[in-house]
Design goal:
By secondary structure, the protein is mainly beta. It is 6% helix and 35% strand.
């Protein structure tokens, strides 16, 4: 399994990207669920995705924002020129274990960013919980800014959306998603480098809600890479911590 934390990449817009592999194989989008997606960069070269859940509150993966670095949100103007916006505070779930993450075991891979100002042109998505039980074949949507070609940072930076289905034995600790066409056996849609922390949506009666974050990926048949399986940390065990942290920051959900 590949941990999707980040490598050094320019925040300038990519040029074009092939339509194979990952979330990057999904359609570029700036509307719908994509309106809550933000780009997170760190002073050590981090490049990750986050989901806006309140005007100044971003949900992401804990492994995207380790201590010892400064983090910013990338904001684009009307001409798609990037600028950096300050992150006021970072909170990592106390149950997160980097060693477990490095060993590809389930852990509390969730974190919150408090922004200094609300990003322009963005709209928060509703925070929710996955329907229980989570069944094989259940449909989810992921939206991220990761690369479309593994190892090519220039192919990242565009918000792309893809629909995936649950496989294996989904539960409250981890959900594994695959492209419904290839079922993880051949290259298809899925998360890749830079999609860590990407919001995972499930459709509810009132519309899509964020029920988890992207944590890792594999290539087809569990090999290294992308385009096979996408590992998701569901919010079932962590939503209360998210709400309590938001309340401490005065950013009620």
């Amino acid at each position: 399994m590949k941990r999707l934390s980040c490598f050094i990449v320019s925040v300038a817009l990519p040029l074009s990207a092939p339509a194979h592999a990952i979330v990057g194989g999904g359609a570029p989008s700036t509307e719908g669920v994509a309106r809550s997606v933000v780009t997170i960069v760190g002073s050590r070269g981090n490049f990750c995705t986050g989901g806006l859940i309140a005007p100044k509150l971003v949900l992401t993966a804990a492994h995207c924002v380790p201590p010892g670095a400064d983090y910013k949100i990338v904001e684009y103007d009307a001409d798609r020129q990037p600028s950096l916006r300050d992150v006021k505070a970072v909170a990592i779930h106390p149950g997160f274990n980097m060693q477990a993450m490095s060993g590809h075991r389930a852990t509390a891979d969730v974190a919150l960013l408090q922004l200094a100002v609300a990003p322009k042109g963005k709209a928060p998505s509703v925070l929710g919980l996955p329907d229980i039980p989570i069944n094989v074949g259940s449909r989810f949507t992921i939206a991220g800014i990761g690369v479309t070609v593994r190892g090519d940072g220039k192919s990242g930076g565009t918000i792309r959306v893809a629909g995936l289905v649950a496989t294996g034995k989904p539960g409250t600790l981890q959900i594994r998603l695959v492209d419904p066409v290839g079922q993880g056996a051949r290259e298809g849609l899925g998360a890749c480098t830079g999609d860590s922390g990407a919001p995972v949506f499930e459709d509810k009666q009132g519309g899509p809600v964020i029920i988890g974050v992207v944590s890792w990926s594999t290539g087809p048949n569990g090999n290294a890479g992308c385009g096979g399986m996408t590992g998701v940390t569901p919010l079932t065990l962590y939503r209360d911590w998210i709400v309590q942290t938001a309340q401490k920051w005065g950013a009620g959900l």
